[in-house]
Each structure stands twice: as C-alpha cells, then as structure tokens.
Amino acid sequence: MKVLLINGSPHANGNTALALQEMIKVFNAAGVETELVHVGNKVVRGCIACRKCAEIGKCVFDDVVNELAPKFAAADGLVVGSPVYYASANATLIAVLDRLFFSTKFDKTMKVGASVVAARRGGLSATYDELNKYFGISGMPIASGQYWNSVHGRELGEAAQDAEGMQSMRTLARNMTFLMQSIALGKEKYGLPEKEPWIGTHFIR
C-alpha cells in the first residue's frame, strides 16, 4: 500500500502539516508507504483549458503538477491537505488539483481519497466539501474519520493542542488503511467495476 499526501499550505511545517504528519505516523505503523509533497509554496498557474494534455500526455506547464502525476498513478490513496482561506482551499492547491486531475488520464477508480483542512475557526466544512469533489468525480472512494477531517489552530503549531482534531487524523488514517486494504482484496477477487462508454452531454445537445 502506498499513500501520496499533498500539503497545500504555504507553510511546510504549519498546522496542515501537523495534521498530515499525524496520519503518516499511523500509516507507517501499519506498513503503508507514504510520500509527502509540499506544493503550497510553489508558483503554480491555473488550468487554461488548452487541452494539450490530451495530445502530449501531460500538462503543457511542466512544473510540480507533472512531478506529482506518476506519484499519483502509483499510489493506492491520496490525501490532500489545505488551510482555509475565506472558507475555501488555498488557491495554489486548487490550481494544482485542477491540472493534476484533468491532465492525468490513468484510471483513478477505487484509489482512496481523503481531504484534511486546518483553520483558526470557521470555513472548515466548506473547504472539506470543495476538496472532496475531486475524488467524487474520479470514481475514488472518500475516506472518512470520526468527524469532518479538520484541525483547529491559528499560530504555527497550535493544531497539536487540538486533541480531538489529532485523534480525528489518526482515525482517518486507520479507516483509510482499512479501506485501501479491503479494495485491494476486492480487486484481486472481483476486479474493478465494469465501465460503460462515457456519455458526455451538455445543455445544447
């Protein structure tokens, strides 16, 4: 089992990182391989809908998104962490995710996804919902914990004092590990669900 974790905070060792590190401890104890990539301090432009990725097999902007693509392809699970800005995820992270999910054409079905959010006070559930939409559109089961996957803290390191939040991270990691292992056994016995040819429609046809 392998999990890719993406830290979307500008702070490499901030409260988002503390939440992800708490999960990593549980993953590693269970024998799950982990890799944490910090993207929140990168200069990343948003998708321009050029669709060149369909021709060249990767995003036309050769940055951290193309570095993440093979790591994502090899992973059994993806954890995305973000601080809350105006009840939304960090814009840099959203640019990364838009381009990463759109430019990668490998089958993401049954890779397990989980989102983790950190905030001083509010906007957590809105950001949590925003991040989960990437998994939902990709056939990726969404791992849950004992609450919405969030921690509280304003100053760097304060999230470590959020006992319930840290417990939620550990519970999430255990649940995610179980889900990945169960899916692996299911794929071995039953394979992936059958897929119909995609029917793409819009409101003028």
Write the layout of secondary structure elements.
Layout: E1 2-7, H1 15-29, E2 33-38, H2 53-56, H3 64-74, E3 77-85, E4 88-89, H4 91-103, E5 112-119, H5 124-136, E6 150-152, H6 163-190
Parallel strand pairs: 1-2, 1-3, 3-5, 5-6
Antiparallel strand pairs: 3-4
Helix pairs in contact: 1-6, 3-4
What does this 3D model show about the protein?
This protein is of the alpha/beta class. Strand 3 (77-85) and strand 4 (88-89) form a beta hairpin. The chain has one domain: Flavodoxin domain (Rossmann fold). Strands 1, 2, 3, 4, 5 and 6 form a six-stranded mixed beta sheet that branches. The protein has six helices and six strands.
Q: How would you summarize this macromolecular structure in one to three sentences?
A:
The protein is an alpha/beta fold and 205 residues long. It has helices at 15-29, 53-56, 64-74, 91-103, 124-136, 163-190; strands at residues 2-7, 33-38, 77-85, 88-89, 112-119, 150-152.
